[in-house]
Input
Amino acid sequence: MLENTENLKLNKDKICKATGWHNNCGLNCLTHLLKAKLDNNELEEIFSQPAYLRILESFKMFYKLDFTPSWSQIKTLLNNYANPIDHEAILSPVLRYYLGSFLFNQAPLLWENEGQGAFSEYIEKGAVMDVYIPIYNSNMTLMKTLRNQYLKELEFIEKDPFSEKEKEIANIALNRNNIPERLRTENKIKEQILFNRKNDLLEKIVNEGKESWLKGGCKNYALYIGELLNSVMVSGEHLQLLCQHLNIGLSLYGQNYELIYSPNQGTLWNFKVINSGLHWEYESIHDDVNEHNKFYSDQYFNEERYKPVFNIYLGEELIEPKIVRSVKIQLANEEFKQLKDKINKFIDKGIISQDEKESQFEQNFKEICQKYKIKFTNKILNHYYTKDENKQQEEKPKSGKISTDENLVKKPRGFKKVWIFISNIFRYIFIRKPNISNGSAQDNLTDNTIVEPQTDKPAISSKKRRQVVTFSNPEKSKDEESEKKEKSKKRKMTPSISKNPSGPKNK
Output
């Protein structure tokens, strides 16, 4: 099971990518290692180790569950997502939470490497570098108190008289700095004494800060790191301490791929990571590097079918609203699926009757929702349970789809709703008038047209029908017909006038 740690040469052709979501890139790399060991079942051999049991406890605390999940459940959960970016979104926040839960046990080491520099800089200057901001944010009240104490005592430094011992120490310091005796004036000695007094005061205040750091300041810092939304950059030292707890041999490489830190012998696995200063990558533990890296390309970010469920690569995803709920539903999904089989077994054994099946299912379903702290809705219930399975099977066609009109017609959503609304307006404005030239008989009906039953004879217009009904006197109608004939003869006798405004054309 132990891997060979002698060959520490980095293979540059096998470098895999990870996202930098919330400065979690170092832990994202570790997520892919644990996922690979889950897939090949190597992690099952060490499930009972305390550190890995504590990760499960951290999973419970982070996702606010009432129970501690198993590694088998987490494996099933991760396998429900095909995109490795989703694996980072689910597991790396848990690793950060776990990091914050034990990091305060390394308080003396963290003081030497981080805390002392942060306290000294703030007490003296009233500000800190970017790398020390997490320490300041997590211990702001303490550091401000020490800074005020330092400024008050600094005022009395110049007022106190100089002792002979201080002058002697000042001369020794000047001599060490190769200052000749002719330049060791009274003012020069005074400056050196004040400088020494200031350093002694700073050291005294910083030591007071160290005592507070060991009592609770480091714990504040560790918990601040463990909070995902604080987005603290995980340093090489933090990742090294975490891997030591998990018995993973971490090989750390710098920007130019030079080896900075190599693992101790006797570790479970060797894990090679590259820290370029602001981002982390790792040497592949997968069979196909390109298969992993393709999910981090622009093509896969832009195509809908390849996008991850959680858009952490753009930094858009908040952990609480979406990821936590999705993880809870996925964890509960297996129990939801098994619930119907469980109820059927109760029926077969005679524990419950067929009539009690639905109520029993709903009761157990609510208990599962309560266990995973999922809001119970009838929509979720109906998704996992059908009231009458036989009726549903009869309604299903051979393709397996329900043949009712309600299920065949999908309701429009989002952009489709807007497009339908705009097209209806367009149709109302431009197409509501009938097209006389190309339309059918039904489309060309006007308000004055009377619709007759369909016969072989053409329909009689309303105008002709009115003539037949109104003029019932045959003699009167004959006179009118003769008048019309005379008028038509007169029109034929009169010369036609051209409609051209410019007059008749000359031949």
Q: What stands out?
A: Strands lie at 15-16, 248-253, 259-261, 269-275, 280-283. Residues 1-5, 387-412, 433-474, 494-507 have pLDDT under 50 and may be disordered. The chain has 20 helices and five strands. The first strand starts at residue 15 and ends at 16.
